[in-house]
Amino acid sequence: MSETNTAAEVAAPHRYTAAMAADIEARWQDFWDAEGTYEAPNPAGDLAGDPELAARPKKFIMDMFPYPSGAGLHVGHPLGYIATDVYARHQRMTGHNVLHTLGFDAFGLPAEQYAVQTGTHPRVSTEANMENMKVQLRRLGLGHDKRRSFATIDADYYRWTQWIFLQIFNSWYDTEADRARPIAELVAQFESGERPTPDGREWGVLSAAERADVLGQYRLAYASDAPVNWSPGLGTVLANEEVTADGRSERGNFPVFKAKLRQWNMRITAYADRLLDDLDGLDWPEAIKLQQRNWIGRSEGARVGFPVDGAGDITVFTTRQDTLFGATYMVLAPEHELVERIIPAAWPEGTHPVWTGGHASPAEAVTAYRKQAAAKSDVERQAEAKDKTGVFTGAYATNPVSGEKVPVFIADYVLMGYGTGAIMAVPAHDARDFAFARAFELPMRCVVEPSDGRGTDPSTWEDAFSSYEAELVNSANDEISLDGLGVVEAKAKITEWLKAHGLGEGTVNFRLRDWLFSRQRYWGEPFPIVYDEEGIAHPLPESMLPLELPEVEDYSPRTFDPEDADTQPETPLSRNADWVNVTLDLGDGPKKYRRETNTMPNWAGSCWYELRYLDPNNDRRLVDPAIEQYWMGPREGQPTGGVDLYVGGAEHAVLHLLYARFWSKVLHDLGHISSAEPFHKLYNQGMIQAFVYRDSRGIAVPAAEVEERDGAYYHGGEKVSRVLGKMGKSLKNAVTPDEICGEYGADTLRLYEMAMGPLDVSRPWDTRAVVGQFRLLQRLWRNVVDEETGEVTVVDTEPDEDTLRALHKAIDGVGQDMAGMRFNTAIAKVTELNNHLTKAGGPLSRSVAERLVLLIAPLAPHVAEELWRRLGHTESVVHQDFPVADPAYVVDETVTCVVQVKGKVKARLEISPSITDEELEALALADESVVAALGGAGIRKVIVRAPKLVNIVPA
Fold first, then answer.
1. 900: helix, coil or strand?
2. Is 722 left (phi over 0), alpha (psi -120 to 50) or beta?
């Protein structure tokens, strides 16, 4: 501390300083905790005895779950938390019963990585990280109901995550009723014969394994052999988001291969239409809705069967069934299950050498190509590469409309994740098929007449021709002709013909795939599933929940040669034989079982946490129905119910947000909750960015050590580059909230983050600018408290009219901005009012001072509490009424209207802001200066923009 500062503090011992802010903030945080200031009352119990409170409208406000990182928070992390806190405080002050709390999404890979590296149990490091974050968050003065907080790793929480999994496992989707129903109802249909079994046998004659297989085709949670991202170098399966665009693991940069493994899946595809349709009723950013619509990817077309001798049909889904006559070859995804069944022992006579890839047999060619394709990511496979790769399977299929034999290839540009994993290739009218046909010297047939004059011989074209506006050609057989029809007409006609001949039918397809729900890791929720000696899966009864994670000696999955794609995962749980192999009585006597050794993905716990916030201590049911109905049930303007405001990053658009919507719909269908959607209103906050400084080697240097000289930047005397980027420890530009709180106080940090700009856009951090908000608080403090004596200086007199107008305009503007989450402009209006009061001089009227404190209370709650108490109030400012503006003082008595003639200002009129266009025009034309400017000329036009402008155009 400088000598000047020391002298100033001696002269003004009651000045608002960082030390005073720290004292005020600590005291009020303790007070709020002790008094339960932010505890939200629930219906039936808490509200029953308080009619006034029960009559209040409710508001459920949520932030996206934080993950307790060991690095703690930097100033970018709390942006959304501060914003929701400000909004929640304003809602409390405007008469709402507000539920606002925060828990921790604590399962996941980072803690497990740390455990692998250090041997520290993931729970130990995770709980330590949570405690650190709780301290940091508390220091910000966030008004959370701490009774409702929890972590996903709490056994009494993930007990219900496991319970929800069992609800999904024990359910099926009834397409006729368009909802999920208990699996017992499906079993009853099979038993009664109402629903036939797939092979027509009676349900009673099927073995237990056969029944399990049948039900597995219907269950909403099911195990299957699924293609996954397998990383031998890490020893685990990876989610798509954990694989880089070049097909390597994000962690460790190991090769990632496609492999088929037995995995748990969620049948989210059953809800595809409802997930699409219900987006319309949600108050979400259009960009997020569009991402979900594109991810679900609904498309209308037809399924068509291409027979292969001795192997049944290859079924394709196409949205251009009108081009069937132009299909000259087929392509299967390398992973397609039919590949092994259709390949012959030897190449057919006359096979083109280019098709074989130089291999002696189809089996050899397919094996080699599959290994090559498995080393590529889906992104790589879908890239528009110049060179198309593939290999002939040796098999031919029959085009069902032309009768022609067409060769069947496998190629990596076809994925199992879309459609049927097989395509009919129409190279004349599809760019990728065109490139593949050129590479493999395959025939092309024009069936959609080009409108650009290129003619109908594809061998002369440079690229494919694709259009919905052209007419069909070369598309006829003995029974049907599409020639001369437009695309839409042709699609309808060929679809009807295919259905009539049993060759296909119109259908809807989705890009959305079922959700892969297994992870070969330790730090996740155990599946409440055991397998009997026949390998049949059995759900654990509710009485055996929670199934807790056992202790293991090694948290690492077993790793293998990174290049060896033919390995299989060995999970950490599988090594605990005493836990895996158990004797249980599931209702039919003690039997030996084997537990599932995969764990659930980190998304599981965040799929339903909004419900636990409502009723966090309920050990008898998921959530009390009356409590859920009160906080989340459907109501006017929210037809599917849900959280009133959910704030978080846009990066979760098609993962967490889609998964949570799916779980809510299942629970709603089964009658457990009244809300069919989890989050009614979604708001995506922007990002706080920071400058990254790099030396000549491209290595980041500490931002705090960089000096600016003459527009350039230097570190240790060396010139460095500067770019705006993310804030983070690795970039050496992180600023912690602890640093800012220590130098200025939490209220200053809150104000600065809210004042930086609109909440939904990214903005750069500038530590030097923080002092501006600190000075605002100092001026506000000085307007109420004498810095020398510490006495309150307000007086019990009425303010003058100018002050009343400034006050009520601020009240009106700040109130609207708060409700609209425009916190930066709300702060600007508070600053403007405070500056007006400072310039006016003299002591403040008590009524003005109190309303000034109430205006800033949501933004700077600690200093507001302190000033409210010093103004003589004994109750917390948190639940005081937000000021209401007097309309008489909000509207200006007069406004200035500019009158122009030929674009030049000739008069200024003081008029009523409510004046009509006609009245204003008459006044302007009667003004002496305007009459003189016109000089007797006629008037061609008068443009009136009441009450601010009149523009007169002479004839």
1. strand
2. beta
DSSP labels for 745-759? -HHHHHHHHHHSS-T
> What's the CATH number of domain 1-35+744-891, 2.40.128.110, 3.30.450.20, 1.10.730.10, 2.60.40.420?
1.10.730.10
C-alpha to C-alpha distance for 14 and 773, rounded to whole angstroms: 19
Peptide bond into 947 cis (omega under 30): yes
Contacts 24+ apart (CB under 8 A), 153-157: 153/106, 153/107, 153/123, 153/126, 155/546, 155/548, 156/546, 156/619, 157/605, 157/612
Check: CB of residue 679 under 8 Å from CB of residue 646.
yes
Predicted local distance difference test score (pLDDT) of residue 229: 85
Give residue 756's region: left, alpha or beta (phi > 0; psi -120 to 50): alpha
Q: Pick out the chain residues at pLDDT < 50.
A: 1-4
Q: Is the Cβ–Cβ distance between 498 and 321 less than 8 Å?
A: yes
CA dist 399 and 494 (Å) reads 14
**Could you tell me which CATH number the domain at 892-954 has?**
3.10.20.590
Residue with tokens 């006044």: 923
Burial of 931 (0-12, 13-18, 19+ CB in 10 A): middle
> Tokens 């007169």 correspond to what residue?
952
Joined together, the tokens standing for residue 914 give 């409510």
**122-139 helix and 109-118 helix, angle to the nearest 10 degrees:** 120
The H or E element that residue 847 is part of is helix 846-856
Q: How far apart are CA 169 and CA 670, in angstroms?
A: 12
In this structure, which CATH number among 3.90.1150.10, 3.90.740.10, 3.30.1370.10, 3.20.20.70 belongs to the domain 299-510?
3.90.740.10
Q: How far is 104 from 123, CA to CA, in rounded Å?
A: 13
Helix (H/G/I), strand (E/B), else coil: 356:
helix
Q: 321, 323, 317: which is closest to 465 by C-alpha?
A: 323
Residue spans of the domains in the chain: they are 1-35+744-891, 179-267+515-595, 299-510, 688-725, 892-954
For residues 450 and 446, what is the distance between their CA atoms, to the nearest angstrom? 9
Cα separation, 190 vs 914, in Å, equals 74
CA atoms within 13 A on the CB side of 618: 17
Neighbours of 442 (CB within 10 A): 21
Q: φ, ψ for residue 882 (rounded to 5)?
A: -70, 140
Query: What distance in Å separates the CA atoms of residue 804 and residue 811, rounded to the nearest whole number?
Result: 10
Tell me, what's the pLDDT at 290? 96
H or E segment at 238?
strand 236-238
Residue 439's CB is within 10 A of a number of other CB atoms, namely 15
3-state helix/strand/coil string of 499-551: HHCCCEEEEEEECCCCEECCECCCCCCECCEEECCCCCEEECCHHHCCCCCCC
Report CA torsion sign: 390, 394, 399, 404: positive
Under a CB-based contact definition with an 8 Å cutoff, are residues 700 and 713 in contact? no
Provide φ and ψ at 257, rounded to 5°: -120, 155
Residue 730 is predicted with a pLDDT of: 85
Torsion sign across C-alpha atoms 371, 375, 377, 383:
negative
According to DSSP, residue 761 is labeled: S
